[in-house]
Amino acid sequence: MIQVRNLVFQYNTTTVLDDLSFSLNKDETTVVIGRSGVGKSTLLRCIVGLVRPTSGSILVEGADITAISEEELNLIRRNFGVLFQGAALFNSMTVSENVAFPLRQHRNYDKQKIREIVREKLSLVDLEGCEDMMPSELSGGMKKRAGLARALALDPKCIFFDEPLAGLDPIIAGDIDELILKLKKVAGMTMMIVTHELLHGFRVADKIIMLHEGKIIATGKPAEIVESDDEYVQQFLRGLPDIRSISG
Amino acid sequence: MRRSLEYLGARLIRFFEATGEILILFARTVSSCRKAIQNRQNIMKQMAFMGVGTLPIALLMGFFIGMVLALQTGYQLLRFNLEGIIGAIVGLSLAKELGPVLTGYLVAGRVGAAITAEIGTMEISEEIDALRVMGVDPVFYLSMPRLIAAVFMVPIIVIYVNAIGIIGGAIISATYVGVGIQSYFDNLFDSLTFDEVFRGLLKAMFFGGIVATIGCYKGFKTTGGAEGVGVYTTQSVVLSFILIVVFDYFLSRLLL
C-alpha cells in the first residue's frame, strides 16, 4: 500500500534518516523500533506528509506524496488516521466534537448520522458515556482512546501510531495493546506503529523494522528479529547498556 | 569585526525570511477567503470574540480618550480664546488618528495575544499537525476566520470608540472649557466629513489585518513549550504595535 524508497531526511547538517527503503503492506501491522531520538517519529511524519524528506520517494497507492501539492496531499490524507504521542485532541472541543470533526470537514452527513458514527467509534475504543467530557477531564489512557476514535472516524485504510504507550502505566498500556489487536481483527487495516516499547511492539507486529543511526539495521517477522545475528539488535532486545557510553 | 558582520548578516537574513513568511501566510489566508462560507461558524465565533468581547473595554478607553483630549486641548485653546474649535479638534483627532490607532493597540493587546497563545498552544500540543493529517488546512481553519473577523470588527469598534470619545469630549467641553454641547457639535459637524471618518475606518481595517496576520504567524511559529508560548505571544504584541505605528504613517500619507 505504501512504499518508501531511498528516503533521506536531513535536519540542518544532520542526517536523521539515511536511505531507507521498505513497504507497508495492506492489512499488515508494521512496528518501527529503535532507541529514542533515532528518527522513528520523523519517519512517521515523512510518511503522513507532515515534513518533506530531503530526497527519496513515498508512494501511496502509486502516488508519490513527496512530489504533490498540499491540496493533493490533503485528499490522500483522508485515507490516513494518526494517533499522536499526546493524542493531540482539540482542547476546546468535547470528546464527541473531536471525533465528529473529520466527519464534519469531509463528509456531508446529517447530524444524526454523525452522532451514530461518533457513538460507534467511541464504543469501539471503549469510551461510551464520555461524549460530553472535555479532553482536560480525561486520563492519559482515555485521551489515547479518544484520539484513536477520532483517527478512525473516516474509516481510514491506513493508521499510524506515534508512541501509543508513552506516559501510560503497564496496565493501561496493556489495554491499548488489546485495543490495537482488536482493531487488527475488526477493522483489518494497514498499521504502522512507532515505539521503543519492545514487549508491545512484538505483541502487535506482523513485521518489525529496526532503526539505528538513521538506517534500517533489521527487518522481518518478530521471530526473525529475535534470532538476528546483529550485535546491536541483540543489545537492544536484551536492554544491555552501551559499553562505550559506560567506559566513556 | 567579522563576527559582528556575520551577526548582522544573519539578523538581516532572518528579517527578510520572516517578512517573506508573513507575506506568504497573508496571501494564503486571503486566498482561502473564497471558501469562507464553509467556515462561517468559526468566523462568527471570532467576530463575537473580537467585537463583542472587546467592545466594553474599547468604550471605556474611547470615553476617557475623548475627555483627556478635550481637557488638554481645551486648556490650551482657552489661552488663545480659540475654544470654539474644540469640537473639530476632538472629532478630527479621534476619527483620523486616535480612534483607529488606539483601538488597533487595544486589539493587538487583547486579541492578537489571544490568537498567538491559542494557536501556539495548539502547535506545541500537535493539534495543528492533527488538523493537517486530517486533511484540513490550518490556514483555512484558523487564520482565515481570524483575518476576516479582525478586518470587519476593528472598524466597527472604531465607530463606537469615535462616538463615545466625541461624547466624552462634549461633556468636558461643556463642563470645563465652557463651550456648550450645541456649539461643540455644530463645530464638529462643520469640520468632520464622511470622507475623513471613512479614511480612519480604512486604516482600522488595515490594523485589524495586521493584528490577525501577525497573531497567526507567531502562533504557527511557536516552539519551546509553555515558555515558548509566552515568548511568541509577547513578540506578537510588540510586532503588531510596531507595524501599526509604521503603517499608520504610510497610510496617513497615502490617504491625506
TrEMBL record, chain A:
Q: Could you identify this protein by its name?
A: ABC transporter ATP-binding protein
**UniProt keyword Coiled coil, yes or no:** no
Q: Which GO-annotated molecular functions does the record name?
A: ATP binding; ATP hydrolysis activity
Key words, A-Z: ATP-binding, Nucleotide-binding, Transport
Supply the InterPro entries for this chain: AAA+_ATPase, ABC_transporter-like_ATP-bd, ABC_transporter-like_CS, P-loop_NTPase
Source organism of this protein record: Candidatus Abyssobacteria bacterium SURF_17
- Do the record's keywords include Cytoplasm? no
- Give every ABC transporter domain span: 2-238
Q: Could you tell me which SUPFAM superfamilies the record lists for this protein?
A: P-loop containing nucleoside triphosphate hydrolases
**SMART domains xrefs:** AAA
* PROSITE patterns linked to this entry: ABC_TRANSPORTER_1, ABC_TRANSPORTER_2
TrEMBL record, chain B:
Where is this protein found? Membrane
Q: Which residues form a coiled coil?
A: none
> What InterPro entries does UniProt report for this protein, alphabetically?
ABC_MlaE_roteobac, Permease_MalE
Q: Which GO terms describe its molecular function?
A: phospholipid transporter activity
Q: Among its keywords, does the record have Transmembrane?
A: yes
Q: Which family does it belong to?
A: Belongs to the MlaE permease family.
Keywords, ordered alphabetically: Membrane, Transmembrane, Transmembrane helix, Transport
**What is this protein identified as?**
ABC transporter permease
Q: Report any Pfam family annotated for this entry.
A: MlaE
Main location as per UniProt: membrane
- The species this protein belongs to is Candidatus Abyssobacteria bacterium SURF_17
